[in-house]
Amino acid sequence: MRFLRKSTKPHPDLSFIFLDWSVRESFHILDYLSRQTIDRDRFEVIVIEYYSRVSEAIRKYEEHVDTWALLEMPEDAYYHKHQMYNAGLALSHGRILAIGDSDAMVRETLVESILCAFSHDQNIVLHIDQFRNHSEDMYPFNFPSFDKVLGDGCVNNVNGKTSGLRDTIDPLHTRNYGACMCALREDLISIGGADEHIDYLGHICGPYDMTFRLINSGRREIWLEDEFTYHTWHPGQAGDGNYLGPHDGRHMSTTALRALLSGRVPPLVENNAIRQLRLGASSQDEVLFEKIVDFDRVNLWRKNNLSGIARSECQGAQFIESFRGARISQDKQRFTAEWIAEISTCRHKSDPPLSVHSFSSISEAKKTISEYLPFGLRLRIRLFAMLALVWRLTGFLWQAARTDRRVLSLRPGKISDHIGRGLKERVLHSSDAANLIVLLVTRRSEAIHSKPLVVVLGKGDALIMRLFIWLRLLPTATVVEAKDRDSARQVAASVTEGDGAVLLSGNAYVRFYSDFAVCPRNKVVIV
């Protein structure tokens, strides 16, 4: 690692961390940060270059940069944003850290808004959403007005707020989690910093992996409603041609989502320098800087070494998915499974517990899980799936009949994407329903009382589950459909310590996790 500039500010309130991997054409955010309403001595700017390039775009604003470090990674290694986050975290001096786009526009009140939010509440992880304009008229960047960015070509301006902030159905995918994320430095160190697992190599996953793990540690996620960043079009802004780690089809990291689901706080792979800081080392220790980059691990990120590595560097088992009331985890090349909420095995008492088995594949684990369920329970799951399929096919055909002109006007690729997304969501709902059915029928945990509250995604699934309860195919329960954020908030607000457990599918929890975070922890069973 080589330093071009090194900060001399001992105790700034805020540290900005900006990244480059020899691709940034403009660092104009540095110009906007030079015109803040807060005194410049109260915040520092850290720029981390992944490779060895000395960017002329940064040279243009060099007097506004406090720390400028080149990690000097091999040119044939894919970039790892989390490695750069950790470098910035280790080199920072601020009480609060802000990670954001280096080529974004910000208003003069950005720093003031961040400091104000943390002055009111320290127990938060803060996000600021971003307006994005896809017009090519502002490339190369020519310092357009904010009104122009919000005008023609802006794809997410809804009456002065981003569409993500107004989204009540799926804000996880419509908000920009990488635009600007802020958290206390000590909080980020306490969770082990950014996860340097190979799943986060390349384009997939910004700082929201840390957001999810901070939430699991007890912090609240909040989004500012009156402060935004602004981004104009440039080539390659969608990560074209970059390495992609595992994601859900809409560029949200599945590894990060699994951390949210499983409640995991530590990273799968911790940076050595962050580990030393977490254990009490001084941030002024020069030896610490030598540990920021682990070149043995970097060798795994070389373009010729990526095949077949995926999870070999994980420490311990990683949650993969829930299936019929059991959680499947992977420890390197083996898979294990155990029942959710301490469900005892449903098969013969002489059989070994499910948790003692080791499987060579997910399909083998799922087969064994199904075999542990009694025939009557398997029959109920299949009957539910059949009825749900009929409901969804009927609904899909009805929707197609009503919107045939709109669908037929789409290109064939768009039509297949539309159908594919719908089918994928319906498959997820069926899996969620199977988990809820198993938990209802076989509940053994003391946390699940006589009449649990079951939160279901999808109107059809909710109706069929109520029908099954009425027919006494399932035990008595209160079924609630979470169709949007408002209904999810109502359910979460109604849960008290004296109530029975809330049975919540993983799909519903991920979609509305920030709303259900207010529920008593011992009352929510995620399946």
What is the subunit organization of this protein? Answer: single chain
Radius of gyration: 25 Å
The shape is globular
Q: Flag low-confidence runs.
A: 418-424
CATH topology of the largest domain: Spore Coat Polysaccharide Biosynthesis Protein SpsA, Chain A
- Main sheet strand line-up: 1-4-3-2-5-11-7-12
CATH superfamily heading of the largest domain: Spore Coat Polysaccharide Biosynthesis Protein SpsA, Chain A
Question: How many E strands?
Answer: 20
CATH architecture of the largest domain, please? Alpha-Beta Complex
Distance between the termini: 45 Å
Beta-strand proportion: 15-25%
Class of the largest domain, according to the CATH hierarchy?
Alpha Beta
Task: Count structural domains.
Answer: 3
What structural category characterises the helix and strand content?
Answer: alpha/beta
Give the biggest beta sheet.
8 strands, mixed
Keywords:
527 residues, alpha/beta, Spore Coat Polysaccharide Biosynthesis Protein SpsA, Chain A, 3 domains, eight-stranded mixed sheet, four-stranded parallel sheet, 20 strands, 36% helix, 16% strand, globular
